[in-house]
Amino acid sequence: MMLVAVAGVSLLNAFLATRHAEERIDEQVRGVAGTLLDSNFPLTDAVLADMRGLSGAEFFLTNEKGRVAASRSWTAKIPPIVPVGSVRELRLGPPHEIDGTRYFVAALKMKEPRTSGRGSHSGPLVLHILYPEGHWRASRRAAAWPPLAVGCAALALSALVAALVAGRLSQPIGRLRRQVNRLAEGDFHTVPLPERDDELRDLASGVNQLAEQLDEMRRVIRRTERLALLGQLAGGLAHHLRNDVTGARMAVQLHQRACRARDQESLDVALRQLALTEEHLQRFLAAGQPQEPRRVPCEMESIVSQVARLVEPSCRHRKVDLQVVAGPGSASTLEADPDQLRHLLMNLVLNAVEAAGCGGWVRLESCHDDDHGARVRVLDSGPGPPAEFTERLFEPFSTTKPEGVGLGLAVARQVAESHGGTLVYRRLDAATCFELTLPLSPTPQEATLQTQAVIV
């Protein structure tokens, strides 16, 4: 559209310039004719020759019989032209070929009497004007050339600018088109944003956001599919393993009753290990089939003590120093599912034992504060997870262990959030720290006040 507009304007200017040149020639001829008509000096051959130099036209006079009364040695036959009576009516007529040259011809009646270069004439004289078609066309070309030249230059410049603008627009649009095609094929990588802050940058940003959302949705779908498959496998596997573990526990208990005085400690360790196996099964089941917590009044300190007793054999086997620190308010009462909290802490403590390694230490700290409620920290002397892995630490199936499944921390956070609490990871001094916070149960006085507030 820009190129068409430039070309149209250039052609219009050229057309108007040629029309102006034609009007200028007519005005010039009428001006000379008017001067000759109103003059009082004789119209000699020399005067007509001077008029030719001023206007570029041929001038000559004829008498009433058509004979030449004054000219510049004009010998050619004059075409019959009806003369006009006034200068205003004078117009150059259609071209005629005279003596091998084409002329525009016009004729004007002169005042009577007039004196020509060949004497006085009592009859009317006619002034004949012949304008060369070659001069007329040259004047038109001279008038049309400047706007056409400027138009051609503007057209070339506009085409160059249009090509540059189109290139700057088509390249990012092409990248967006290729990115959308990749999105359709399942490749959700983002593209760099254009440098210019315009609509294309906004569009590219929107496509990048779409790619990120689609990538996240794909991960969620895969995770959901894995969890669904895991739930199906876990149901069948847990059914058989529970039967096996229950049978083993019953056998050990019977053996413990029959051999009460012999190696009592070893039997206790075996029973605790079987109980730990059941805890692992429960945790595995919770990943595939999460359940709502069964809230009952319980004490965090009691749950921490049970977990410490269960993992103590593993700590002694791995030569890890297990420390339990009960802070102020650790015996506060919670409305929670003790089994799920025990699973949560078991997972954190076993991970800490494995991370600390031989000669390391693991510490369980429980306390209560007014701002956060019940708080339990599991610290270890291990190096902690890699920095680039911390953002995906609690995602299902994310693990740095070759033999790991990547469900423990995901299930632990799920349990914490289902209880209205939080589970976070941080580096505390030189130790790895997982901190669990849970809301405390209201005291009887607080519960009564809350009930009264609801009634009001």
CATH superfamily of the largest domain: Histidine kinase-like ATPase, C-terminal domain
Number of domains as seen in the coordinates: 3
CATH class (first level) name of the largest domain:
Alpha Beta
Strand order of the largest sheet: 2-1-7-4-3
CATH topology (fold) name of the largest domain: Heat Shock Protein 90
Shape: rod-shaped
Number of strands: 14
The major sheet is characterized as: 5 strands, antiparallel
Q: Calculate the mean pLDDT score and round it.
A: 75
**Range of strand content:** 15-25%
* CATH architecture tag of the largest domain: 2-Layer Sandwich
- Tell me the number of helical segments per DSSP (H or I, 4 or more residues long): 9
Order of helices and strands: HHEEEEEEEHHHEHEEHEEHEEH
Unreliable residue runs: 443-456
What is the radius of gyration computed over CA atoms, rounded to a whole number of angstroms?
A: 54 Å
Q: How far is the N terminus from the C terminus?
A: 73 Å
Pairing-aware structural class of the strands and helices? alpha+beta
Helix content: 40-55%
In short:
The protein has 456 residues and is α+β, with helices and mostly antiparallel strands.
Task: Give a description of the structure.
Helices cover 54% and strands 18% of the residues. The two termini are 73 Å apart. With 456 residues, the protein is α+β, with helices and mostly antiparallel strands. The chain folds into 3 domains: 2-142, Beta-Lactamase; 205-289; 295-448, Heat Shock Protein 90 (2-Layer Sandwich), CATH 3.30.565.10. Strands 2-1-7-4-3 form a 5-stranded antiparallel β-sheet.
